[in-house]
Amino acid sequence: MLLMHTDGKGFMKTITQTFYTLLFIILTVGCTKEEVNTKSTQYILKTEVWPSSDHGKIIPSQGEYNPFTIKTIYARPEPGWVFDRWEGAISGKDNPAAISFYDDLAIRAVFIKDTFKVRTIAGGHGKGSELNQFHYPTGIALDPAGDLYVSDMYNHRIQRWKPGATVGITAAGGNGYGNSPSQLEEPGKIDIDSQGNIYIADTGNNRIQKWEYGGLSGTTVAGGKGMGNALNQLNKPFGIAVDDKGTIYVSELGNHRVSMWKKGATSGIVIAGGKGEGNAADQLAIPMGIAVNNKGDLFVADTYNHRIQLWEKGATTGKTLISSKDFKSETPLNYFSGISIVNETLLYITDYQQKRILRYDLNSNNFEIISTNETLENEADKLSQPYQTAIDVMGDLIIADAKNNRIQKRKI
């Protein structure tokens, strides 16, 4: 009896061990099969544009994604339209927006007609360094695709804002202030060539930096030899213009001059001013903004002389187009801070002291005030120290509203 009892106990122990072994195998195989199934599952993204795909698009438009993949989705309006909101799997006005794939998803982007007389298209969330903020934006430029670039002076960075976006992307700098290739210090104005390369007046570093599209660092293409007035030096470069040959024009606040740097040159040529601060025809006083036409004629916002100067190509003196004397009934303090040229015939000029925008017709040699704070009923829409303008494909006015830390769009 004792032997049978012992054998029975061993037999039961063997059965128990076998049962747990089989259970472990079943569970392991089951889990492995479930994991394989999970990994092979693809969730579908369906997208829709309302009211019509002619008014905007969604990037990416559709596709299949692994479970719990996090994807950024962006709604880009066509000219004349504005992104309004998301509907479906995501909602709200954040653009771009992040989505997580836990199932098949359907998303709609709603666009509305751009009928706004005045609206903020970038920034406007107070002074700061977040991606939806600026700290004194002084320069703007539009690239060939219509993306907006902003010189965010005291954040030491250049931000790119896609149409309809509610946040910017750092395109240059943003690594604290400094003089390394990946840094900027208080950048002034900017320009962009046909390939999307950014040219930056890196004011605090007394150099001009070229950042190729998508680049992580810049290359010095003018100055960078310390502050000075030698031909291979710059002194507080602020305004910048680049022609289709790659020639760079730079206004220098400290040298009261505009210098021209041919592509690949190691020194510049003084083409305006450079004879000390003064108001004579061959002098400038803290010139902030410049523009160049296809003939090589130079237009200068001669800020502390309260005038706009034309220096024809090869000229040794400038010709005054606008001055404080043209505003007889008003204060003579007109600080022209920015200037841009459109279609070779129109100059758009910012007057940051008077908080207004002027337009000068080069064919008729007449100017008009096209935008002032006095014409706006909403106090929140009014400008405070506008520094630069640009004109978009719809002919609307884009303004770097520096002290309000935003970029504003106005219909003319």
How would you explain this protein's 3D organization?
The chain has 412 residues and is mainly beta. Helix content is 9%, strand content 42%. It is built from one helix and 31 strands. A hairpin with a 7-residue loop joins strand 11 (157-161) and strand 12.
Observed structural traits:
four-stranded mixed β-sheet; four-stranded antiparallel β-sheet; 31 strands; 1 helix; mainly beta; 412 residues; disordered N terminus; 42% strand
Question: How is the secondary structure organized here?
Answer:
Elements: H1 2-40, E1 43-50, E2 56-59, E3 63-65, E4 70-77, E5 81-88, E6 97-100, E7 105-113, E8 118-123, E9 137-142, E10 148-152, E11 157-161, E12 169-173, E13 190-192, E14 198-202, E15 207-211, E16 219-223, E17 237-242, E18 248-252, E19 257-261, E20 269-273, E21 289-292, E22 298-302, E23 307-311, E24 319-323, E25 336-342, E26 346-351, E27 356-361, E28 366-372, E29 386-391, E30 397-401, E31 406-410
Parallel strand pairs: 1-7
Antiparallel strand pairs: 1-3, 2-4, 4-6, 5-7, 8-31, 9-10, 10-11, 11-12, 13-14, 14-15, 15-16, 17-18, 18-19, 19-20, 21-22, 22-23, 23-24, 25-26, 26-27, 27-28, 29-30, 30-31
